Each structure stands twice: as structure tokens, then as C-alpha cells.
Amino acid sequence: MTLETIWFCIIVLFWLGYLFLEGFDFGVGMLLPILGRDNTERRVMINTIGPVWDGNEVWLIVAAGAMFAAFPGWYASLFSATYLPLLLVLLALIGRGVAFEYRGKVDSERWRRNWDRVIMIGSWVPPLGVGLLLTTTVLGLPLDEHGNRIGGAFEAVRWDTLLGALAVVGFALVHGAAFLALKTAGDLRERARLFAIRALPVALLPLFALLAVVQWREGALWTLVALAVAVVAAVVAWRKLVADRDGQAFAALGVTIAAAVVTLFGALYPDVLPSTLDPANSLTVAETASSPYTLEVITWVGAFGAPAVLVYQGWTYWVFRKRISAAHIPPVHTP
Amino acid sequence: MDVLQLARWQFGITTVYHFLMVPLTIGLSVLVAGMQTAWVRTGEQRYYKMTKFWGKLLLVNFAMGVVTGIVQEFQFGMNWNAYSRFVGDVFGAPLAMEGLVAFFVESTFLGLWIFGWDRLPKKVHLACAWAFSLATIASAYFILAANSWMQHPVGAEIVDGKPTLNSIWAVLTNNTALAAIPHTIAGAFSVAAAFLVGIAAWHLWRKRKTDDEHRAVWRSSIRLGGWTGIVAFAVLAITGDVQGKLMFEQQPMKMASAEALCHTEQPASFSIIAVGDVTSENCEDVKTFNVPALLSFLAHSDFTTEVKGVEDLVTEYQARYGTNYPDDPQLGELAGKPIDYVPNLPVTYWGFRIMIGFGAISAGTGLLALWLTRKNKIPDTKWFPRLALLSIATPFIANSAGWIFTEMGRQPFVVVPNPSGVDGVWMFTAQAVSRISTGEVWTSLIALTTLYAVLGVVEVFLIRKYVRGGIEGVIPPKTDHDQEGKDELAFAY
């Protein structure tokens, strides 16, 4: 395997890490108004992800940073071509990040309601945008010979990329509900579990529809296997939820998204961003990759950095492993 | 405006805004980690209260620093895709390192620190504070290494018409970066120092006549702020001088514009201030309080050497990099037009002076604070807390002016060609911008600026609220609740 291919896989891994980790914390934010009946319950929900959401978000930063370093041409073309959807993602992430921190800083119902809205929008919009972006990179855009987008600002918005947007949102919703079932106790936990059971068959449909489309257009035999794994894992997740095994259900959903990502990017390789105008304009792994030396440098950094990240982020989850319920929430205290 | 101008405005606005949050985060996080260390070592309550109070303000600010940083990373791909394609091989590496090595540590350990009170052993919790505060500095290091490469490209060679990395070591130990890093970090500490001095002075003054149980907290804070400010200023002055000398060598045009030095002078005089338009034909006439020969000394460490002026430099640049932009349709309006090699003189001239002037004011306030609080004294005049509060703004202004000077001073280049940089590695800003519609950039410029403005108001409101709330605002009073619910979290959003 060449270094270029290895870096393609690493970037796919970063995106997978992002979808898996921020997937559930987006889900929790999306469910805030649906499952959180009062302020204490909403605080319980927010605090299940409180210590970890910021670390989860870094997976996005690193996925983009690694694209910049390893495949500058991919980074440059994809992000300029999907300008407005990406802008919406950024605006939503800005609001969401400060909302968690600011929500409890003033003891007023109105203040909290407004920030809850920001959290909700900030949790629905980014998975939509990221889904659209990743689907776009798999299904391609009208690109000219310089790798620039031909056509208007909404070229990336089509029925198939919108399917990708819904796929990530649907996954985040179920994943978040499963996470809440795993991390909370009592009434809230039961509601989260029931929600996940009811929502799963519908919410994961766009994901499987997208995988089917991609498999139909570009797939190989081995991506078909990955697709099958994704479907089976989703069924397992549903059964585990019914059987009241939250941890296993959550892990099975992780397998679903992993297999889905493998299907998508497996179908994409060796392209990184196909041109729908002319296959000659398609960006490929080989063409957009940085020099062997640069790849070698970041491989060393990644080889030491990435395992360390997994260890200390894993430790964070261990430190905050306890289930949270309303009884754990201290009274509101602001100046 | 065309895409180029809009993208430049957006980069300027988002960067300066981001850099209002970042220095406070860097400076304050290290100082808070220091306060917590003092508490863990001595067990004294005042250090615990300091950690809690300043830590809360740090968190309100940290959130804004993080979210505005995300925009910075994506902006290169969105607005500057030609730049990203051209320099990605070199420039991408330090950015990726920042994420992988520094930013992960920062975000993860900050989460552990916020929620880890009572959950983690005391010393492990303290180690989390140090982990994230040192990671903020590591972040700054990688970003500044990337930025310094734009100022002074090293460690690369041209392969197939593109700069290609050949030594990451050269990029990470670029002398421009090694000078910029202590300068920028010291700038960050001067922000945190002014913040401590201003707020602590106000609290000391407010309860000067009553027996305030928290007086020790404010006294320790103001002393810490005062000393930090003075040490930071000393480092700023020394590293600023080193940076200046490097820049005379690497980017003579930037330094000539910093002085609005129209004509070559030998020896060259340093201008303190100007009255009137520095871009006028006889720009020497508008400059007042010239210190003879000082500029020669600042540039080359002796009082006699020649310093090249803008006019001569323009001739040199034209000879080397051409008089007109290439007639390339990708350059839009500028294709085939003459190249203006002179940065915006009023901005560079005044940016340089505002940076130095405001930096000195904040150090002066720190010195004054130390004098007024010597031997357990408490200043009881109203002018001092007012001045100290106002001075909080000065290092912020100095930092912004410094960045505006640095980045505007390298125009019309995005990667500046240097006598000591790698030959042939340079790029015009006009060549760097994405081929996208003006509508897209307008949308993002307006949306980001509006959101930043709204959030700026909210942040200032919250910081004021917590500043006024004092110690009671950050440490919940003991109630009956504590006995019943032993299981309660020490901290929850």
C-alpha cells in the first residue's frame, strides 16, 4: 500500500471518528427539546456530553487539517465548491459551542430557552451539512480542469446529496438516543430507549438508501459486504435496544456507521472528488496528494499523536462513565 | 468589491476577532494553572478562590476562542483555494500538527478540568490544567510556524512549479517563527496581566473601607497581574527588537512602510509620530519627533548604516518580480495590471506605532499597580481603578495592531519573497483567492460579522456579570442541599 493510500484511509478514519463521536453529541442536542421535559432534564442531557463534546469536535478540525496537509487539492476543491453549505455548518457550530458554555450562566427561563434553540439548530444543521459535504465528495461535482466548480453556488445540493444529509442526521438522532439511554438513569433513560427503538427503522432508511445508490453506481463486491455489515449491525442495534442492552446497542450503531463510511469511501477510491463533467477532471488520490516527504512527516506525527489521542480521550470517557440523573444536578448558581 | 477584496476583509475581520479571544485564553490559562498549583501546594483558600474566579472568566472566553478558530481553518479552503493548492504541501503540515498534537490535548483536558473537580485526585486535576494551558501554547507555536512561513518561506524547494517541503525542521525552527512565538506569547500574557490588574483593582477599590473577606484574593491577583505585565513587556521589547532586525533583512518593504520611509536614508532616523498624510510626496515633512540615526540602529545595530526607502525598494521589486501581473484570466480584474508593491502606508505606519504605544501603556499600568499596592497598601482614589479598567483594552489593541501591521505589511504578497527565503517561493495575494462568486463571499462576510458582533456583546455581558459577581458568584454557598445529595456533581452545565 502506498503512503498516499494510507493517508486516504487515515482521513476516512478521522471522518469516521467525527461521525461516530460528534454523531451522538449532535443527537443529544437534537433531542434536547424532544426528550427534555424540564430544565433539569435538559441539563442532565447536556451534561452527558458536557465533558466530551469539545474533544469530539476536534475530529472535524483534524479531518480537515489532515486533508489540507495530505491532499491539498482535495481540501481546496471540496471546501470552495461546497461554500454555502459549509458556511452554514460553521455558523451552527459557532452558536452551538458557545451555547453549551453560556446556557447556564444566567438564571432566566428566557435566556435558557434561547440558548436551547441555538443548541437545537446547532445540532441539526451540522450533520445535515457534513452529510451533504461527504456525499458530494463521493458522488462528485461539475469540476473544470483546474478543480474549480462550474455552475452556481448550489451545485452541491441535489437529491442524492440531500439523501446524504438526511442519512447523517438520521444516524445522529438514533445514535444520540442510544447514547442517552446508556448515560442517563430513570425515566429519561426509558424515554430515550423507547425513542431509539421507534426511530431507528425510519431514521436509518436514508443512510441505507444512500449506500444502495452509491453501491449501485460505483460499488464493488467488497463494498457490498461492508453494506451488508452496516445493515446487520443496525438490526443488531435495534434488537439490543429492545433487549435493554444500551451499551451493546450503542456499539452496534458504531459498527453501522463504520461500515457505512467504508462503503462510501471504498466506492470513491481512488478518486477523492469525481468530476461529473468529464472523468479527466476528476481529482484522484495520486494527483492531489502531497509530496512523499510531507506524507512521511505527517505519518510520524500521526503515528505518535493518534494513539495518544485515543488513550486520553478514552480515559475521559472512563472518568465520566457514571450514568447521570436529575439527582446529580446541582442547583443553578449564577452571580 | 470583487472576491479578492471581500475575501481579504473576511480574513482580516475573522482573524483579528479570533485573536481577541486567543491571547486572553493563552495568558489566563497558564496563570490559572499557576494559581491552582499554588493552592495544591499551600492549601491556602485565597488561591482556591483565585483559581475558581479567574477560571470561570477563562471558560467564558475560551468557548469563543475555540469556535472562531474553526472558521480560520476552513477559510483557507473556502476563500483561498488557489493558495491551498499551491502551498498545501508545506503549509498544511504545521496545521495538521496543531490539530493532532495540540488542539486535541487542549479540548480534551479542558473538559476534564471543568468537570473533574472532586472527580479526579487533586494532583491529576491540576495536571489537566497544565496539560490544556501548555497545549494552548503548543497550538500557538504551530500556527505561528505556519504564518511565519508565509513571511519567510524556508524548508522548501520548487518541484513542478510548486513549493515542496524538504525540511519540516527548517519550517518549525524558522528564525522568523522563533522570534514571533515569544513575542506573541508575551503579548498574550500582557493581555491576561491587564485583565487581572483592571478587575482586581476595581474589586479592591469597591470594598476598600469595609473588611472584605476576599481582599487577599484581589491583592494576590493584582500583584500577579502587575508582575506578569512588566515581565511580558520586557520580553515584548526584546523579541520585538529581534523581530524588527529580522524583518529589515527579510521584508525590507514592510519595515520601510512601518516607518513610512519614502527615500533611502543614511543614517536613518526613527519617527515617533506623524501629523498629516504619511503617503504624501514629502512624507518626511509630516513626521514629527524624529530621533536621528535610531532607525539605522534598530535595523542593523549601528548608527550609521543605510536603510532603504520605499521608492528604491519598489524599483528593486519591479526588476525582480515584474511590473505587471501576468495576463492570466484567473487573476480577474488585476490581470495584466501594474503591481503595487507598497503596502498601505497609513495602516503600516500607524499599526506599528499603536502596537508599541498601547503595549507600553498596559505595562505602565502594571507598574503603577505594583507601586500603589506595595506593603499591603490599598489604593483609595477613584482614578486608579478607572484607569486600570480602561487599560484592559490596551494590550488587546496593541495585539490587533501588531497583527494588522504584520499581515497588511506583506501585501501584495501572500507568501513573501525574501532575500534569505527559498529562491522562487512566493505568491501574490491576487493569485491565492478562490474562483467563486462574490455572492458567496458577501454572504459569509455578512453572516460571520453579524454573528461575531452578537456573540461579542454576549461575551462582554457575561464577563461583566461574572466580574461584578466576584467570588460569591463562582463558589456556590453551602446549603442543606449538600448533605442530602452527596451524589451531586461538583460542576454541571
From TrEMBL, chain A:
<dbReference type="GO" id="GO:0046872">
    <property type="term" value="F:metal ion binding"/>
</dbReference>
<dbReference type="GO" id="GO:0005886">
    <property type="term" value="C:plasma membrane"/>
</dbReference>
<feature type="transmembrane region" description="Helical">
    <location>
        <begin position="297"/>
        <end position="320"/>
    </location>
</feature>
<dbReference type="GO" id="GO:0019646">
    <property type="term" value="P:aerobic electron transport chain"/>
</dbReference>
<dbReference type="GO" id="GO:0070069">
    <property type="term" value="C:cytochrome complex"/>
</dbReference>
<feature type="transmembrane region" description="Helical">
    <location>
        <begin position="56"/>
        <end position="75"/>
    </location>
</feature>
<dbReference type="InterPro" id="IPR003317">
    <property type="entry name" value="Cyt-d_oxidase_su2"/>
</dbReference>
<protein>
    <submittedName>
        <fullName>Cytochrome bd-I ubiquinol oxidase subunit 2 apoprotein</fullName>
    </submittedName>
</protein>
<comment type="similarity">
    <text>Belongs to the cytochrome ubiquinol oxidase subunit 2 family.</text>
</comment>
<feature type="transmembrane region" description="Helical">
    <location>
        <begin position="119"/>
        <end position="141"/>
    </location>
</feature>
<keyword id="KW-0479">Metal-binding</keyword>
<dbReference type="GO" id="GO:0009055">
    <property type="term" value="F:electron transfer activity"/>
</dbReference>
<feature type="transmembrane region" description="Helical">
    <location>
        <begin position="6"/>
        <end position="35"/>
    </location>
</feature>
<keyword id="KW-0349">Heme</keyword>
<keyword id="KW-0813">Transport</keyword>
<keyword id="KW-1133">Transmembrane helix</keyword>
<keyword id="KW-0472">Membrane</keyword>
<keyword id="KW-1003">Cell membrane</keyword>
<keyword id="KW-0812">Transmembrane</keyword>
<feature type="transmembrane region" description="Helical">
    <location>
        <begin position="220"/>
        <end position="238"/>
    </location>
</feature>
<dbReference type="GO" id="GO:0016682">
    <property type="term" value="F:oxidoreductase activity, acting on diphenols and related substances as donors, oxygen as acceptor"/>
</dbReference>
<feature type="transmembrane region" description="Helical">
    <location>
        <begin position="161"/>
        <end position="182"/>
    </location>
</feature>
<keyword id="KW-0249">Electron transport</keyword>
<feature type="transmembrane region" description="Helical">
    <location>
        <begin position="81"/>
        <end position="99"/>
    </location>
</feature>
<dbReference type="Pfam" id="PF02322">
    <property type="entry name" value="Cyt_bd_oxida_II"/>
</dbReference>
<feature type="transmembrane region" description="Helical">
    <location>
        <begin position="194"/>
        <end position="214"/>
    </location>
</feature>
<keyword id="KW-0408">Iron</keyword>
<feature type="transmembrane region" description="Helical">
    <location>
        <begin position="250"/>
        <end position="269"/>
    </location>
</feature>
